[in-house]
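Collaborator request log, item 7. Partner lab (contact: R.S.) asked for a structural prediction of Diadenosine tetraphosphatase to inform their binding assays.
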Amino acid sequence: MKIADWGRLNGEVVVFGGPYSNRQAVEALRARTCDAAHHICTGDVVAYCADPCGTLDVVRTLGARVIAGNCERQLASGAADCGCGFEDGTACDLLSANWFGYASAAIDAQARAWMADLPDWAVFTHAARRYVVVHGAATDVARFIWGSTVDAEFKNEINIIEEEVGPVDVVISGHSGIGFEKQVGSHHWINAGVIGMPPHDGRAQTEYVRLSEQGAVSFHRLDYDAPAAAAQMRAAGLPEGYAQALTSGWWPSEDVLPAALRRTHSLARG
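Returned to partner:
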């Protein structure tokens, strides 16, 4: 376990997850948030989309503080898959094999070394609160935590975190692809969502979080050139389902989603 201490961060902080090899999205984020004092990425810089090398370059040029996602850990080690733990034969499992192979072939040894050097977690203070940044959860880098996850599971994750890093006020996570914030007792849990893929709600915009200088949390939608990113995926021969998702706003599979977040449930609610 490698835990970075980023010290005290002053000013506005932008938190974003999952660039997912979507260079167009991260360039749009850079243009929109260049006024922020700090940028934090919750990992999975390289994943579904068509420009892993360009996306890495933009994230690093931005000066973002990055923790390792499961994709970084798997790519750095030369693994054969993304490490999400999808069940064999599910849509997510079959689709991930294609994009992971493409990403692994595209990145070089220098990029893998950068990924290998990333921290697993990071701690920092901001606006008199102590934060910890994890990718999925304390129990598993690739664990899917949702806003609907029961409080007992959040509390267990927080207990494990605090055993490792001491008391914290706020947990920031990523991985699941859908942002939320939740109060769990005296702790605040924030998932910033991802900028590389829409949050399965029928809109092409992706999402990220701003922490104001005073510590207020606000979620923001990100407009970017989604048709260009989708066209780049098609030209690279990547899965059509994810290319289509960039513009439709709907994921090609709901295998990993709890029932309340599935499209059929959303449509039934109107």
